[in-house]
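In keeping with the milestone schedule agreed at the kick-off meeting, the structural modelling team has produced records for the first pair of proteins. Each record is given below as a sequence line and a structure-token line. The laboratory manager (R.T.) confirmed that both were archived under the project's standard naming scheme.
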Amino acid sequence: MTQNNLGRAYIDLPSGDRAANLQKAIVALEGALRVRTEKDFPIDWAVSENNLDLAYFYSTVEGLMENLQSAKPCFEAALRVWTESGFPEEHRSVVAHLDRVEQALRLHSSE
């Protein structure tokens, strides 16, 4: 839980170097996902996956396309747990982010 919360705090941190904060968020969230597995902690895992998606989505350190490509499978993974019937609000939020990622990927692949 601590690694997830740390990652989320770095995503939301309003000060400092935004790119560095997002890289720290990615490291923390990847650490959280080594413990929060889909099998053992599905809801917590989905939360950490979603947060990792957001960190990749907002990050520009390694390039926009690479980050969008990294974010897409994370969003899709979170949807395995956050189903429309079981978690409608979370599902809608993740689907909206996934749609933005897919639109951005389409836009940049046509350039």
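The second protein of the pair:
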Amino acid sequence: MFTAVFWKKVWTWLKHYWYWPVIIVLLIFSVVSGASSRKKVFELLDRQKESYEKEIQIIKETTEETDKKKTEIFTEHIEEIEKIEEEHDIKVEELEKDKQKELVEIIEENKDSPDKLAEEIARILSAEFLKKNK
């Protein structure tokens, strides 16, 4: 009667319906112990429920706070990147203007000597100047 198959079936039933034996044990305990113990058990359950709700509320608040901080940091980061890009664009424009001025000056200085002009332009543009062999 109490074979291995029977115990496997009992174990499977307990895994799926574990709450029934717990309820039966609690009912037996409450009947045996009397009204004062039942009251204490229910008070304990109420306190546990309140504690659980407080913890859930704290978790919600902290996640909202961290989300706000993350978005603030993200927006600050985006703003800093935009500032850096604007500064970079301004500096590139200034550099280009300086190169253009220098180029105009070199063209004016070397308009009579094309080889010297080509050599200076190559220097400004960071290119290599190759002399022509005649």
